Amino acid sequence: MTYFEKLSAIRKQMSEQQIDAYIIPSSDPHISEYLPDRFKCIAFVSGFTGSAGTLVITQDFAGLWTDSRYFVQADEQLKSSGFELVKLKTQGTAEYIEWLAERLEPGNTVAFDGKLASVYIAEQLINRLQPRKILINGTVDLLDKIWQDRPELPKERAYILEKELVGATITEKISKVRAAMQKFNASYHLVSSLDDIAWIFNLRGSDVKCNPVVLGFALLEPIKTTLFIDRSKLDQSDKTRLEEQGVAVAEYDTLEEALSQLPAGETVLLDPKRTCYAVYTQIPQYERIIEALNPSTKLKASKNDIEAEHTRQTMVKDGIALTKFFRWLEGRIGKEELTEINIAEKLLTFRKEQEGFVNESFDTIAGYKEHGALPHYKATDESNASLKGEGLLLIDSGGQYTTGTTDITRVISLGATTDAERMDYTLVLKAMIEGSTAIFPKGSKGYQIDAITRKPLWDRLRNYGHGTGHGVGFFLNVHEGPHVFNTANIDIAIEEGMITSIEPGLYREGRYGIRIENLVLSIRDQETEFGEFMAFETLTLCYIDTGLVDKTLLDQKHVDWLNQYNNMVYERLSPHLDEEHRQWLAHKTQII
């Protein structure tokens, strides 16, 4: 079926079921950012492959609401689909709800599949539309009937990590979660989010591309914990280990029955932003539900000493792979056919050489010239650009290792560059340095680091449309909450042990894009009469190209930081490199 035919088939069902508006979120029953193939509904219906968006379909309009990261991509992918791009004004908001409120009439019906919508979104729909006498139906799946050969749920094996790797046993983690439950006076706690499941049970798998997670739910009771998972994914030794640590293993599809049997009068804690509406409606005591952030989400955000040290070691491995890649790339520009796709494949081969490498942590963004201006660009056979000895190349990539997760962006020159390119590059570098060297009072929030980082760009009337940083898991999701460095994070404090990216950028549509990204670890700095202060330890180890730097735009402190950072990269990586790579890296990290 073409996208037009799929849209027509959905509208036909809407007409038959008297549905006036149908909503398709980018989500799954675990409210994941990255999805198993079975739940890539927006891509199936419209062709849009970005990781954030919502489709809204009426009989006379079909739109995709997404944010500025995807404007150019969506414009291209939605051509001839029947869908129009609706540009979000504020990233992460459900602005389509207001659009529906303004256009629907009393008695109209809005429908969605409750397995794909969070409790948070469903409640926004209900609170905004029901007072206007608009009906809400969260039990409608209009895709399954038209999705021939829809992928099945993944069946890959799962496995449990040792305490020596993650720093805590399953029992210890469950105890911490139960202690948090007591603060809410909650007898039960439902966990739906896959990275929380992975963290609590030291469980890893490959059910979602690039994210080492396993489809599952968990129900914590006062003295019992149940993990709902496809039991065939675990071997007997892992099942026994779970049982020995007080965890009962039940089949994945038995959760709803278990929830329906919860005793009346008991409180249930769940995260409304990470629990789907279909599961929520199976809990009988609505009035006894406590909606709050999953305790495990905050607990896993602060890495323990063992996780932090493993991550430092992982950065050495990743830095070796990147050094070999950039030297390989430099030696072949202009001498052989290089494209965005084959250089991404080559980078993967260098990472695969490293001990403990499992997978990429996301699809590599290799954006040459104007493609670098697309923050979430992924080369296709149609867009795949050939590299020449000129212009800027942006590489945003990362790896999943058993000892940690990496995410790094670098921009290099492939030849002749302009004054404008060098100025923009230097200002982005200056912004990254400002964020990385920030010293801030304990309790500071992400929006403050975001502003500190942006100031060098604001001073020159420049800005970028994405957040400054996101949390990163330990051999887990490369995008991890609850801590983010953006304007929306006014609530979550930066705590010791959090790993976060700092990645300012500048994007000149149709010309080039620049982003420089390191991962940092939040650490204690010092205490004065004015309170405790924190700082960042930079974790990422890969040289920053100095050939694009305009020193006249930097203060001495920025030059000093750059020289010290590049020297640290050389000192940490050179013992693991052969002589040719050492000499090459020594040249790249010379002081300026």
From TrEMBL:
<feature type="domain" description="Peptidase M24 C-terminal">
    <location>
        <begin position="532"/>
        <end position="591"/>
    </location>
</feature>
<dbReference type="Pfam" id="PF16188">
    <property type="entry name" value="Peptidase_M24_C"/>
</dbReference>
<keyword id="KW-0378">Hydrolase</keyword>
<feature type="domain" description="Peptidase M24">
    <location>
        <begin position="311"/>
        <end position="521"/>
    </location>
</feature>
<dbReference type="InterPro" id="IPR000587">
    <property type="entry name" value="Creatinase_N"/>
</dbReference>
<dbReference type="InterPro" id="IPR000994">
    <property type="entry name" value="Pept_M24"/>
</dbReference>
<protein>
    <submittedName>
        <fullName>Aminopeptidase P family protein</fullName>
        <ecNumber>3.4.11.-</ecNumber>
    </submittedName>
</protein>
<dbReference type="InterPro" id="IPR050422">
    <property type="entry name" value="X-Pro_aminopeptidase_P"/>
</dbReference>
<keyword id="KW-0479">Metal-binding</keyword>
<feature type="domain" description="Creatinase N-terminal">
    <location>
        <begin position="7"/>
        <end position="134"/>
    </location>
</feature>
<keyword id="KW-0031">Aminopeptidase</keyword>
<dbReference type="Pfam" id="PF01321">
    <property type="entry name" value="Creatinase_N"/>
</dbReference>
<dbReference type="InterPro" id="IPR032416">
    <property type="entry name" value="Peptidase_M24_C"/>
</dbReference>
<keyword id="KW-0645">Protease</keyword>
<comment type="similarity">
    <text>Belongs to the peptidase M24B family.</text>
</comment>
<dbReference type="InterPro" id="IPR029149">
    <property type="entry name" value="Creatin/AminoP/Spt16_N"/>
</dbReference>
<dbReference type="InterPro" id="IPR033740">
    <property type="entry name" value="Pept_M24B"/>
</dbReference>
<dbReference type="Pfam" id="PF16189">
    <property type="entry name" value="Creatinase_N_2"/>
</dbReference>
<dbReference type="InterPro" id="IPR036005">
    <property type="entry name" value="Creatinase/aminopeptidase-like"/>
</dbReference>
<dbReference type="GO" id="GO:0004177">
    <property type="term" value="F:aminopeptidase activity"/>
</dbReference>
<dbReference type="Pfam" id="PF00557">
    <property type="entry name" value="Peptidase_M24"/>
</dbReference>
